[in-house]
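Sorry to interrupt, but I need a hand with the structure work. Please put the record directly below this note.
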Amino acid sequence: MEAENQGMSLAEQMNRRVRAQATSDILQFNAEISQIQDIVKLTLGEPDFTTPDHIKAAAVASIEADQSHYLDSRGLLQLRQAASDFFADQYGTRYDPERELLVTAGATGGIYSSLTAMLNQGDTVFIPTPIFPLYFPVTQLAGGHVVSIDTSADGFLLTPEKLQNAIESHRDSAKVVILNYPSNPTGVTYTQSQLKELGEVAKQYGIFVLSDEIYSELTYAGKHVSMGEVLPEQSVVLNGVSKSHAMTGWRIGTVAGPADVITEIAKVSEFTITCVTANAQYAAAEAFSQGRTDAQTMKNVYMDRRDFMLRSLRNAGLRVVEPQGAFYLFLQLPERMRDSWKFAYGLAREGKVAVIPGASFGAGGDGYVRISYAASMEDLRIGVDRIISYMEAH
C-alpha cells in the first residue's frame, strides 16, 4: 500500500468512489448563470412561499423552552407520531411511530441512509429516467450498480414490462427499484393500478421499492397513492415537509417502512448525523399536526401557474409534458435544438432565462428542459415570453 501511494498527493489517495463523482451539475449551472444580469431563474425546485407562521412560532417556542439538546437519533417521538398520523389520514398507510418511522436530514438524508443500509457491493439499483439525479451518485458511493430504465417512450412512467426485463437481465444482483412521484423533473405521477402492477413485479423478485414521495401533497388530480399502502412489506417510503410546507431549509425528511428495515437505516443516520436539529423537529411536528391544509393554498397557486405556462407554451406551438403534481414543466425542444445543455446556456446568456437541461436527469432527458414554476407569476410571464422569443430567433 505504501509503494502504491508513493508519489500520489493526499487528494489522489482519497476514496476512489468519491473521486469518481462530479459535483451536482444542476447546482453548478445555477451558480454560473446567476451571475448574468437581469436573468429570470426558473431553475431550482424550491417553493417561493415562506414557512407558515404557526410553524415558525413552534420553532421559536422550542428555543425559548431551551429545547437545545440531543434528541432520539430516530427523531423526536412527538414528530414521528404526528407524521404517522398525517400519513395515515392522507394516504391510508399505517406506521408504528416508534419502530417504523425515522426522521432524517431532509429527504436527501433519507436517500443516503436508505441506500447505504440496503446495498452490498455490486448490488443493482433500477432507476427509471429522467429522474432527480441524486440517486445515481449515492448508489455508486454505496458500492451499488446503476441500471437506468429510459421511460421517455412511455409517458415518463416505468412500466412493469420494462422493470421485469431489467430485473431479468440482472437477476443475481437485483436489489432496489427507485420510484419518484409526482416526478422531478416531469411532474407525472402513478395511478393506484399502475403502482399495483409495479408492486407485483417487485414482489415476484423480492426486491426493495425505494419510493420518494416528497411531492405527495402537491398532487393535482385526485389523492396521492403511496407505495407504503400498495406494498408495505417491501417499500421504504421517503417524505418530509420541504415541499408541502415550504420548509426546504429546515431539513426535515422522513423514512417509513418495515420495522427491521428501518432499524438498519436508522443506524446509518445515527452514524452520520447523530440526530436532526431540535428546533426544526418541533417545527415539523407542528407542520404535520396542525398544518394539514397548509399545502392546499400553495397547490392552488401552483396549479394556476402550471395552467398559465402550459397555455402559453402550447399556444406558441411547443410540446410540454402536462404535470399532475410537483411544480415542474418538462419542455420538449425542437429538433434543431435537441442538445439541452447547449440550449440552456444559450437561453441563459442571450435570452436571459435560466432553465435546467434535461440531460442532467439521465437517459431520455436530453432534448428537454425542466422549467420550475415555483416562481412569481411576474417572473413566469417574463420568462415564458423570453423563452418563446429566443426559440423563434433560433
